[in-house]
Design brief:
Largest sheet: 6 strands, mixed
Subcellular location: Cell inner membrane
Enzyme class: transferase
Number of strands: 15
CATH class of the largest domain: Alpha Beta
Strand content: 15-25%
CATH topology of the largest domain: Beta-Lactamase
Catalytic activity: ATP + protein L-histidine = ADP + protein N-phospho-L-histidine
Distance between the termini: 55 Å
Strand order of the largest sheet: 1-5-4-8-7-6
Radius of gyration: 52 Å
Keywords: ATP-binding, Cell inner membrane, Cell membrane, Kinase, Membrane, Nucleotide-binding, Phosphoprotein, Transferase, Transmembrane, Transmembrane helix, Two-component regulatory system
Membrane topology: Multi-pass membrane protein
Shape: rod-shaped
Helix content: 40-55%
Structural class: alpha+beta
């Protein structure tokens, strides 16, 4: 697996690369602009000097004359002999005056007026010349300057401008390293906090000092930790509840199995033990199914695969599902639809499970010959039986997990109404439990 460079090193290298590119680009632009400005300045200087020479009375010069040679070094100064040089010719190419240095080596040219490039006699260096003809047409004046001098001048100007930045670049580089270390320090603290964090901890990470670009990551991690902690709590509770609730039915199953094994000589006792064993298996199976259902419901934060459902169809389906168990218990289940066009957005399987659990609970705890009435209204539906109801003292605990009112003859796990409450909460509904005034137990689901 390829190991990536650290963020600090990558940022440093990126800054260094950008600084070098920017410095190189600015150097090139500065060089071009400076050379253009220097060329314009010296061209103007050459032209002005040539015009001053032409303004002299050259007609008095009857023989070639030259000025004194310029010394290389002067007190308090330094003179370059290639800054400017000049010569004066007659139109037939006879030199009548030069500057005493390089002017005597300027070759005569009878080409057009203006600027031209060329070489001195016996020299390979490129020079810049400007040619002008006197007003009377008898003389030609040439003023020259070496191109290398111009380039050196432009280079000196550019170097003077960019050298401070080149010196400041290492300082900026060191300052960048210090600033990156300071700015990335909160990330190192965050890394350390994550490294020593307990797996089950629900304490959120502190966003203090964290850059704004990283703060959404910290908030997302806190949300993840919260969800993970809630999931671990649910799993622990599920494990604890399952271990506690399954202990009794499994112990009963073991006892009935032992009774059946010891009843080889008593067919009646053996048959009774097998019947109770079958009943215990059904009870354990139902308990496991309800535990798994409740565990899945607890892990849901929002519903998926939702659709618009007709509550009348949901209740009709639940009544049809409970029809045969109710008939065996000699219980009549009646559906009253006061609002036939009521629809809700929900998960079809969960809403069907809610209705079936309510009807199953009513059938299981109602005496034989009872009537269960399911009534659909515009703002909810109710399931009412005419059984004994529950004591007012325990009415507030109905719907708690694994809670069953004392004195119940029917076996159960105390999870059915808990599942109803969780499904209703996921659908934005409320569930209330109450004793009916005329007797019986009523469950109202509102929205």
């Amino acid at each position: 697996m390829t190991r990536r460079l650290s963020l600090r090193l990558r940022l440093t290298l990126i800054f260094l690369f950008l600084a070098i590119v920017a410095w190189g680009a600015s150097s090139f632009v500065a060089w071009k602009q400076t050379t253009d400005n220097v060329d314009e300045l010296f061209d103007t200087q050459q032209m002005l000097f040539a015009k001053r020479l032409i303004a002299l009375d050259i007609n008095e010069l009857t023989a070639p004359e030259r000025m004194a040679r310029t010394p290389k070094k002067l007190k308090h100064g330094h003179i370059d002999d290639d800054v400017l040089t000049f010569a004066v010719y007659t139109t037939d190419g006879k030199m009548v005056l030069h500057d005493g240095d390089n002017g005597q080596d300027i070759p005569y040219s009878y080409r057009r007026e203006g600027f031209d490039n060329g070489h001195l006699n016996g020299d390979d260096d490129l020079w810049r010349f400007v040619w002008l003809t006197s007003p009377d047409g008898r003389y030609r004046v040439v003023v020259g300057q070496e191109w290398e001098y111009r380039e050196d001048m432009a280079l000196a100007i550019v170097a003077g401008q960019l050298a401070p930045w080149l010196i400041a670049l290492p300082l900026m580089f060191l300052l960048l390293i210090v600033m990156l270390h300071r700015e990335l320090k909160p990330l190192k603290k965050l890394t350390q906090a994550l490294r020593v964090r307990a797996p089950e901890s629900a304490e959120p990470l502190s966003p203090k000092g964290v850059p704004s670009e990283v703060r959404p990551l910290v908030e997302a991690l806190n949300q993840l930790f919260s969800r993970t902690h809630a999931m671990m709590v649910r799993e622990r509770r599920f494990t604890s509840d399952a271990a506690h609730e399954l202990r009794s039915p499994l112990a009963a199953l073991k006892v009935q199995t032992e009774v059946a094994q010891l009843s080889n000589d008593d067919p009646l006792a053996r048959k009774k033990a097998l019947i109770q064993l079958d009943t215990g298996i059904d009870r354990a199976t139902r308990l496991v199914e309800q535990l798994l259902t409740l565990s899945r419901l607890d892990s849901l934060d929002n519903l998926q695969d939702v659709s618009r459902l007709s509550l009348e169809e949901v209740l009709q389906s639940a009544v049809m599902d409970i029809y045969h168990p109710a008939r065996e218990a000699e219980i009549d289940v009646r559906l009253h639809v006061n609002a036939p066009d009521v629809t809700r957005t929900g998960q079809p399987l969960l809403l069907s499970l809610l209705a079936r659990n309510l009807l199953d609970n009513a059938v299981r705890y109602s005496p034989r010959g009872s009537v269960i009435e399911v009534t659909l209204n515009a703002d909810g539906f109710t399931v009412k039986d005419n059984g004994p109801g529950v004591a007012p003292a325990v009415l507030g605990r109905i719907g708690e997990r694994f809670y069953r009112p004392p004195g119940q003859a029917v076996t159960g796990s105390g999870l059915g109404l808990s599942i109803v409450r969780r499904i209703a909460l996921l659908h934005g509904m409320t569930v209330t439990f109450d004793n009916a005034p005329e007797g019986g137990f009523t469950v109202a689901v509102r929205w």
